[in-house]
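fyi for ur records
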Amino acid sequence: MSENERLQKAIEATIVAGYQLSTEAFDYLCHNCEGTDPLAIMNMVLYEMKYLKEKPFFIEKIFLENMVKQLTQTRQAAQAVQNGKTQATVQTTTQSIENIGEEQKTQGIKVQQSSRPSVIIDEGTFYPYAKYIPSELKILEDATGKLTSNGTLEEYKALFQDRYKRIEKILRQRIDARAATPIREALKSQPKTKLKIIGMLTEKRDAKQQTILSVEDLDSSATVLVPNKAPDEVKKKALQILPDQVICIAVVKTRTNLFLAEDIIFPDVGRKVPQRAQEPVYAVLTSDIHVGSTKFNREAFKKFILWFKGKYGTPEMREIAGRVKYLLVAGDIVDGVGVYPGQQFELTIRDVHKQYDFAIKYLEKIPKYIEIILAPGNHDTSRKALPQPAIPPDYLTAIEGKPNIHSVGSPCLVNIHGVDVLMDHGRSLDDIIAVIPEMSHDHPEKSMRLLLQGRHLAPVYGGKTMLSPENRDYLVIDKVPDILHAGHVHVLGYCNYRGVLVVNSGGWQEQTDYMEKLGLVPTPGKVPVINLMTMEITVLDFKEEN
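which gave:
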């Protein structure tokens, strides 16, 4: 919005709320607020007016002056940090995703790190800008309440047919795959005929430095050979195909029913300009809290909670905290009970109901104007098979009467301030890392990028990720999000892929014995925060240095 439009919105908001501006207040808003958002000022004024016992008919100039003064103080504190006038306890790196290349790697990501001892700054300079902005939260897609599976063979067949049809439709929207031929017709073609076929990968095997792909559509099946003399790019694509993934293959017909691959086309996402908020509000992404585990970093998480209230951090960190409107938690809120053998020896709380009660006690200390969205992970009490419905209400009785805490399923597509966020715990990342060369736990964003390319959150059937045979495949990525958010691997990683901000938010659990056996080094306490207006990322580190 332009300055004039925001001024008009500010005046409209005042009238709708039942107030009028005095002549002096109107002139001040129009001419004396340079550099300050008039709509933000009026939102703050109207919020404060709600708590006055005797509400005036006219809003006077002094109300506006007080709001501008508070905003100016906050801005000056942040500017002082940037100019080196204040002794900062953090190192700042804010990266605009326009400047993050499509193939950007996350090695060497700089983060804001709290120094030792930790600093609790005087509350007087903290101003919660987001408190005066109405929330804009919509749950666009959530399978909770729609799941009907009985686990029959016919249901599994229907699940894969639904997946095929919907991803085939996505593929045929591409110019280079629009004219793909059904496999049955391709098999009838003459030798040396060039064509394209769409199929689901049923098997991939290597033989004599060649890759053999078995694919099928709804009617027929075919065998495709990726020869050793194929271009390196094609051989690389063949290595990245996941079992049960739907792809398009450019082929040449041989004298037999064998096809030779010339190219492999993934459904992928087109380049997009991400949607953005119209005002500078922030979303915090996190996951894998694991309350109840002996490895849960309680001290770092307490700092995290204090930061939301403006009671921890430097002025720059507090400026960010004041603009946080949303907290999205992508699963594993608690460590659970009986999730893996010997877990009872690594628990501080052995009752899962109490684990949730403790988790909510932390979250309820976050300011009420912040919307908190909780999705389940494999350690939570929701069923393990995907898609996961929301955590059963019996385990979340502590959130009753707390309208700012929302429980959703996984995956779930939400819209926050006009920005679409696809949130999934990320259980399938284990399967990708197990079968695709060059994928590792150290860079989860690379595996997440493959999910976007295949337009499916968990394509592999029969691996570590259990899939429920629903009448609809809720894991197909029909709508391309602005942000893809996952967790599970406990390692922070992010990149920009074709305009989609891909974020794995790490977690709050120190290295467990199981992680050590895997060679996995977690990054607990590092939290990505996104400015929804600019789509910039700032990473905060709440863990003390050893």
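The chain has a mean pLDDT of 87. thats all i got for now
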